[in-house]
Amino acid sequence: MKLQLWRNATLVLTIGEKQILIDPMLGAKGSLGHFPMTGNELMNPLVDLPFNEEELKEKLSEVDAVAVTHLHPDHWDEKAMELLDKNIPLLCPEIIAEHISQAGFTNIISIKDTLTWENIRISITEGRHGTGEIREKMGEVHGFVFKTEDTATYIVGDSIWYEGIAAEIDKHQPQDIIVAGGAATFVVGDPIIMTAKDIIEVCRHAPDASVLVTHLEAVSHCKEDRAFIQQVIHENNLQNRCFVLKDGEVFSD
């Protein structure tokens, strides 16, 4: 397994010889504008992709499939809809397949539970995008597990830590777990993705897995930055298997 974080939740996962682009937010810095209920006027995304437009197009030409966890614009933006080949295999939870088809994509692989694509077993997982009223407003979210004979990689997606994530780890026994950190929070309610404390809980629940932290320093409602999360990881002596990825960084095992 190899992956490269591009920015926020956007990454390329390489399994065998297949490259899968996860949650593409491909627009320029500021292209999504101001997010409501954040308590600031910052323009999203806060940073550009770690390569120029020509390099981006070259990288997209190498992608074998796209996987989308949910439809929030920091995971699936207008620029992605514009740049991606409309016939590329597009893996997604069944609940969002119709919406994606409206953007002109013709090769949608809708997943209700589990299927096999190119000898990779792909399962949809549950998530919880916050608590209480905020969770209701954020809507239903999912993640993916990608399995081969040798490896299992769990993309948690936009979720807090709760018993459902523990259950998915117990079920799939992933060697690598990719979480959305940053404790994104609106002006009301609790965090809608994982806090540093949540990330430590993931590590404790999966003592043999590598935990990779993404979704950092790219959108305006995230409250915890890389330095803070790295500090908490060190305080818990988990730096040998919990990694805070930088934009553009490649991780492999």
From TrEMBL:
Top-level division of the source organism's lineage: Bacteria
Swiss-Prot/TrEMBL keywords: Hydrolase
Pfam families in UniProt: Lactamase_B_2
GO molecular function: hydrolase activity
Domain annotation Metallo-beta-lactamase: ranges: 20-215
Keyword ATP-binding included in the entry's annotation: no
Classification via PANTHER family: L-ASCORBATE-6-PHOSPHATE LACTONASE ULAG-RELATED, UPF0173 METAL-DEPENDENT HYDROLASE MJ1163-RELATED
UniProt name for this protein: MBL fold metallo-hydrolase
